[in-house]
């Protein structure tokens, strides 16, 4: 145990120091904390294969990442989700599912894999970088998997920042009420922080509603990750049986049907809904989740390079932009349809 901790210490400390530097720059000068962590991490790429740091970097990029995703559940309660209204909540949930399906359909038409379409579509549909990291954790490993994940993180963070500026202007131009403006902002912008920033520029009522709609999308992360985990395991089992014989049993070495971090997510959500988690502890868990994700992004940055990102080409960016526009148009269409039936 002690020997294992010693192996992880140097690489983990490096990722934590990069995360602290990114947090300091973001706090002092503004800008996306995760993006700073990614770019700072890339500048230390030369340490990614150093024996003293490799184990700790890998630990942060996988285990710390999963813990951060699991703790996201402490930000949500079932009561918050129930306040949205069934029709509005269903429309946003349908937008999440449709955007993931759109990414799955579009990716092969851009010479990308179906899994890359699921990853980018889930990131756009749910909660940006956090969703990308969570979905990547259950997808099969691909040759360009980590590089594509980082491209998704960079692109959705940039688009989310752009949307934080442009979407409130669009909501004003369309003369949306606080409820519908909150639904639009919370149902389309990728990152939670940008949703909050955009919502409260239109007033406290819009900000509150936008935040709750965003938390609805975050809560769907558990459903999406579970569905992908089940579907992918069934596909692997079928492939193994086809490779050996039709009667061959599934492989004994399989990933858990429900990843452990998903149990953490659901458990935290239920405990928070039951009022077991005190407000101070809820805030602390939220900060811990964010800290874990920043450290994980820093570690992923260390494992890649600017040359690797440049070699990805234009297709991933076109895919993510198309998914972003698809989600925005879909949610706006739902708003116009619902507002015609029952103005809010």
**Could you give the order of the helices and strands?**
HHHHHHHHHHHHHHH
Rg over CA atoms, rounded to whole Å, is 20 Å
Tally of DSSP β-strands: 0
For the record, the count of structural domains works out to 1
Assign the structural class, choosing from mainly alpha, mainly beta, alpha/beta, alpha+beta, or little secondary structure.
Answer: mainly alpha
The end-to-end distance, rounded to whole angstroms, is 58 Å
Q: What is the helix tally?
A: 15
Percent of residues in helices comes to over 70%
Portion of residues in beta strands equals: under 5%
- What is the mean predicted local confidence, pLDDT? 83
> Uncertain regions: pLDDT < 50 for 5+ in a row?
248-255
Overall outline = globular
What composes the largest sheet? none
Walk me through what this model shows.
The protein has about 350 residues and is mostly helical. It has one domain. Helices cover about 80% and strands about 0% of the residues. It is built from 15 helices and no strands. α1 packs across α3, α5 crosses α11 and α6 packs parallel to α8. The longest helix is centred in the middle third of the chain and has 41 residues. The radius of gyration is 20 Å and the shape is globular.
In short:
By secondary structure, the chain is mostly helical.
Key structural traits:
mainly alpha, globular
What is the fold's blueprint, element by element?
Layout: H1 2-29, H2 33-42, H3 51-71, H4 78-82, H5 86-106, H6 114-125, H7 129-138, H8 145-173, H9 178-188, H10 192-201, H11 204-244, H12 260-273, H13 279-302, H14 306-310, H15 315-341
Helix pairs in contact: 1-2, 1-3, 1-13, 2-13, 3-7, 3-12, 3-13, 5-6, 5-11, 5-15, 6-7, 6-8, 6-15, 7-8, 7-11, 8-10, 8-15, 9-10, 9-11, 9-15, 10-11, 11-12
